[in-house]
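Me: I hope this is not a bother. Any chance you could explain this protein sequence and its structure tokens? It all follows right here:
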Amino acid sequence: MVATAAAGFAWGWSMAHAEGRLPPARCTALAPESGQVFSGPVMQVIDGRTLCVADGPTPDQWVRVRLADIDSGNPRGALMAAVFAKDVICTADRRDGEGVVGRCVFDGSALGQLVGTDEVRAQAADWR
């Protein structure tokens, strides 16, 4: 139930942000400890390798994750196409200044591999 409500909230928030009506949400939940596994829907994609994973419906319950297995030059649209509003499972590598550096999987595939697939690259063109 939380995932469905969270995904609906994420969609509305993201669209309002894309239209310039809202500032980007800040993922401010406490970062997990190194080695901790956490999961939830992707509520926001900040850039091509940073996203927010929800542990609840509001930004103070979203964990900011910088993906260790994705290059900084990855387009934001590829990450949006791959996992926005979808449930991911993540493992924290270490905390950083704004959240956690870690690795996430969706449907059994590492996000670092998923964003490089032809299907995701084709869908990425539709995201801003």
The mean pLDDT is 86. The chain has one domain: 2-124. The beta strands are 37-47, 50-54, 62-67, 87-95, 100-106, 109-110. DSSP finds four helices and six strands in the chain.
